[in-house]
Design a protein that fits this description.
Elements: H1 3-21, E1 24-36, E2 39-43, H2 47-51, H3 56-67, E3 76-80, H4 93-97, H5 121-133, E4 138-142, H6 172-190, E5 194-198, H7 221-237, E6 243-249, H8 252-265, H9 268-271, E7 272-278, H10 284-297, E8 301-305, H11 316-334, E9 338-341, E10 345-346, E11 355-358, E12 363-366, H12 368-377, E13 385-389, E14 394-398, E15 404-411, E16 418-424, E17 431-439, E18 442-447, E19 457-459, E20 463-470
Parallel strand pairs: 1-16, 2-3, 2-9, 3-4, 4-5, 5-6, 6-7, 7-8, 8-9, 10-11
Antiparallel strand pairs: 1-13, 11-12, 13-14, 14-15, 15-20, 16-19, 17-18, 17-20
InterPro entries: 6GAL-like, 6GAL/EXGAL, GH
GO molecular function: hydrolase activity, hydrolyzing O-glycosyl compounds
Keywords: Hydrolase, Signal
Length: about 475
């Protein structure tokens, strides 16, 4: 090979290395402030009903992991008002589907029965433990299905045709009374102020069918309106501070369709105090469309449920870092006030949870995703505001007094490090105080901030790096 050829190859190699080391420039604008974070959280359904019967010390340990400002720092929790299925179905379709944990206890076993306020003791215990540990806790009461005896199919999993309503209009009064009785009971007996009451869950989807794997009930958007028309004046007369949240659809496409139907009716947004959506699927165009709705409505707004879904991932870490990318898109484009996970504890997998559990043996272990979530929820505290960044893989927030800026760098690639160069609008007033990272070999590990320079911050493959700047 000639010297000229060797020189050319070396030049190409040098250029490739130089290009690979070129930092990704990220502008962080502390002046462009967006939504204030109300909090982070999760549904209590179904894990709390199981864990609430465990040993008291284990319960306290789990609640501390979830609520402690030094751990997950969660303060928003969705309490499930179980409908309760036909007792003849016990140990059957739900147990074979999502497990016995999905067999929620209802509070009223029949139209002429008294309310059973001892029902669902486990979930109630977790709720009250959280209330005691977090004075700023925010609770939502939500329903997956009315009691089985109210439904057309006499099954709280859904109708014989999954795309058809399972609650007759003649039962709307009974169902709304049921929801309000539970909410009022928890206020009068336990002083639990539910911020919101959500009567629907992914209701226009076609997931909910007779003898399915969990409680669920289809409501067409028009049916939702008719039920809300009955619920709103009843709730107003209770004297509670609770407001209605809706529609809690499974994805952004469904949410946009339902919001359009609500608008066409005319009065619905007067009845609804908060908008909720799930983001199991959705693109950025839809996120921006939802944001446009929120700008128009000027109501509180939650991303109330999501989880890892889709993708051919080789590990739970890879899967959940891609969920963080969804989280970043949600927070940066759709701008919800709160962002919630579906489950905190699961059996038989380490992907859809922060703690893996065996509900029979009362054993649990922290899994990698807990540290992934901590990288965001521990450091972007309640009351912080999301601020502008110009890169999809970077999320930033500022404290209420402006003394602290949090910047979080995401690398979802499986084999390539990334080098970020951060540029602040007023960088001279801040200095890097703390750095934490979660990666294959690190669990929200505190790193020496003196080893980092904003001119080039290395983010290893499959990692999440949180940087705290202070004045």
């Amino acid at each position: 090979m000639s010297y000229k050829s060797i020189f050319s190859l070396l030049l190409i190699a040098f250029s490739a290395v130089t290009f690979a080391q070129t930092p990704i420039e990220v502008n962080i604008n502390t002046q462009n402030k967006y939504q204030t974070i109300e909090g982070w959280g999760s549904s209590l359904c179904w894990w709390a009903s199981e864990v609430g019967s465990w040993n008291e010390k284990k319960i306290d340990s789990i609640v501390s992991i979830i609520t402690s400002p030094e751990m997950l720092n969660m303060n928003i929790f969705r309490f499930n008002i179980g409908g309760g299925d036909d007792p003849a179905h016990a140990g059957g379709h739900m147990a074979e589907g999502k497990g016995t944990r999905a067999e929620m206890e209802g509070y009223k076993k029949g139209p002429n029965e008294d309310y059973d306020w001892d029902a669902d003791e486990g979930q109630r215990k977790i709720l009250l433990k959280i209330k005691a540990s977090r004075p700023d806790a925010v609770f939502e009461a939500f329903s997956n299905s009315p009691p089985y005896w109210m439904t057309k199919s006499k099954c709280s999993a859904g109708f014989f045709k999954a795309n058809k309503d399972n609650l007759a209009a003649s039962q709307y009064d009974a169902f709304t009374d049921y929801l309000l009785e539970v909410v009022q009971h928890y206020k009068s007996v336990y002083d639990v102020d539910f911020k919101t009451l959500e009567p629907f869950n992914e209701s226009t989807s076609s997931y909910w069918y007779y003898k399915g794997s969990q409680e669920g009930c289809h409501f067409d958007a028009e049916s939702q309106i008719e039920l809300l028309k009955i619920l709103y004046p009843k709730l107003s007369k209770t004297g509670l501070k609770t407001i209605i949240a809706a529609p809690d659809e499974t994805n952004l496409e469904a949410t946009l369709k339902v919001l359009n139907t609500y608008r066409d009716y005319g009065e619905v947004f007067d009845w609804i105090g908060q908008i909720n959506t799930h983001t199991y699927s959705g693109n950025n165009e839809q996120r921006l469309a939802v944001r446009k709705w929120m700008d128009s409505l000027q109501k509180p707004f939650w991303q109330s449920e999501t989880g890892p879904s889709g993708g051919n991932y080789k590990s739970a870490l890879e899967n959940n870092l891609n969920l963080v990318q969804k989280m970043f898109y949600d927070l940066k484009l759709m701008k919800p006030d709160a962002w919630l996970d579906w489950q905190l504890m699961e059996e038989n997998n380490a992907t859809w949870c922060q703690m893996k559990a065996d509900f029979d043996t009362e054993e649990f272990e922290i899994v990698k995703n807990l540290y992934v979530r901590m990288q965001v929820t521990r450091f972007i505290k309640q009351g912080y505001r999301i601020i502008e960044t110009n890169h999809d893989h970077v999320l930033a927030a500022i404290s209420p007094n402006g003394d602290e800026v949090v910047s979080i760098l995401l690398n979802t690639t499986t084999s390539k490090n990334k080098n970020f160069k951060l540029k602040f609008d007023n960088i001279g007033t801040y200095s890097l105080a703390e750095v934490f990272r979660t990666s294959k070999n690190e669990d929200c590990k505190a790193l020496d901030s003196s080893d980092f320079s904003i001119a080039g911050i290395n983010a290893p493959a499959l990692s999440l790096t949180t940087l705290i700047f202070r004045k």
